[in-house]
Amino acid sequence: MTPIDRPRPAPRRSALYLPASNAKALAKARTLPCDVVILDLEDAVAPEAKEEARAAAIAAIAEGGFGRREVAIRVNGLDTEWGAADLEAVAASKADAILVPKVNSPQDIDRLQAALAGAHEAMQLWAMIETCASVFALEPIAAKARSTRLSLWIMGLNDLAKEMRAQSVPERTPFLPFLSMAVAAARAHDVTVLDGVCNEFRDLAVFEAEARQGLLFGFDGKSLIHPAQIDPCNTVFSPSAVDVEWANAVIAAFALPENQGKGAIKVDGKMTELLHLEQARQLVAVSEQILRQAQDDRA
Known about the structure:
Layout: E1 14-19, H1 23-29, E2 36-40, H2 50-63, E3 70-74, H3 83-91, E4 97-100, H4 106-115, E5 124-129, H5 132-135, H6 138-143, E6 150-155, H7 157-164, H8 176-188, E7 192-195, H9 204-217, E8 221-224, H10 230-236, H11 241-255, E9 264-267, E10 270-273, H12 274-298
Parallel strand pairs: 1-2, 1-8, 2-3, 3-4, 4-5, 5-6, 6-7, 7-8
Antiparallel strand pairs: 9-10
Helix pairs in contact: 11-12
């Protein structure tokens, strides 16, 4: 598999950060219904525990038991005293992906690609979009997905707010332009893009509202800081029964003999084009993947 010939990933509705220094959290991660587990060596780990957390994350990956979940390790920034050792250790591991914070430019992606030269073929490079520099280089960074391991972005609005000196409010008003531009750049180059974390984990209504805002913008899923956020996140980023019913109706209508070769037809009284057929097929495929995952989790 080359960097530009990747299989289509399973849904990535929910990506849960867990501190790699917490043994109980690592054990619990194997049982949670999130799509992605991110073993964190950065923000969630105190400086004195960084090396221990690195060893624990690598050991957890080697032990396995995460089932159908993708498992990534978020390293410390490469400008920190732990970053280089983190990168070397993760590159030699069996992790599905390495998540790198504070990526600023396409040149950063090139350097990371070189550093991962010895990693297993399927290891992906994931990047945090969380600096002022990165939001002005979204398209060239995303374009690197065509020639490198880069396959996914995660928004980091807490760090971006700090750097911008912006205020974090529930509506996320200061960041709305960057959210839409990040999704557009990611879509232009087939990069999966996940919304940033919601700091409110006690009030799930607040979380759900933010998740639905992310869905409105077109994000594939959302990064999480607490297991309580998983179920509402999966619900928001899963096709609804109404969505699936519409998609199946579109597919069935275009399959009728009298509609063969047509570029636009009426479905339920609405004009429906071939682009809607493509959307319908994609929606049904995602719905079927999610159903299979749920069956696997129950097995």
